[in-house]
Amino acid sequence: MSSQRGNVSRTRAQKHKNRFxxxxxxxxxxxxQIRLNAMHVSTxxxxxxxxxxxxxxxxKYKPLTQAKTCAHCHQRTVRKAYHVICKDCAxxxxxxxxxxxxxxxxxxxxxxxxxxxxxxxxxxMDRLIKSFSERKRRAFLRYMxxxxxxxxxxxxxxxxxxxxxxxxxxxDELLDKIKQLNLAEEDDEEFDDEEEExxxxxxxxxxxxEEEExxxxxxxxxxxxxxxx
Length: 229
Ligand SMILES: [Zn+2]
Ligand SMILES: [Zn+2]
Known about the structure:
It is a single chain. By secondary structure, the chain is mainly α. Among the domains are: about 30-95, no CATH class; about 115-150 and about 160-190 and about 200-210, no CATH class. Helix content is about 50%, strand content about 5%. The protein contains 8 helices and 4 strands, in the order ααββαααβαβαα. It has helices spanning about 30-40, 45-55, 85-95, 115-130, 135-145, 160, 170-190, 200-229; strands at about 70, 75-80, 150, 165. The strands form 2 sheets. A two-stranded antiparallel sheet has the order 1-2. It has a two-stranded antiparallel ribbon with strand order 3-4. α5 (about 135-145) packs antiparallel against α7 (about 170-190). The chain is extended, with a radius of gyration of 24 Å. Keywords: Coiled coil.
């Protein structure tokens, strides 16, 4: 029998093939499913991250109904399904919250900011932005709203790369941008500030955006012609 355990000599093609890729939210648009699909799986190693993401993708993920006891601190602090230690303990011990492998052996997905941290960052940035000139403020807000491409760990998923989600910049990146803006405009800021009306600003804005986009497309194009030579 071809389906016998250990029989790997089957040569005929698979009889049934799915014509459409499995979509976990085809018949389930509940907030929970949407939340799961958007969830950033973190504080685990790449292998465990893939396992958990697989469970989400194929609707095998069973969220915890109540917090589980952490294997390190023995408190009821584990809030993520399949994790055996809590986030704080995983961060402290620098290990995967699921398989407990150390960060020395495997790369651990860093946790994203919590809603509270995001709020704190927003407050901090709002305060900084207040001290900016109009032009600088616009440039910075544009940078912040644009976000950045999410890094793709799995290089095989080229299709996914095209649809790469854009995520928010980290605090360090935002502070870097502020530094950069300060350096670029240190000279003219104090003298020209008053005179620069909306006309000037919008010109500057559109130019800056065009430049940015040109840079990107040039980079892409530069890779092609070099091959031909
Ligand atoms: Zn713990
Ligand atoms: Zn792991």
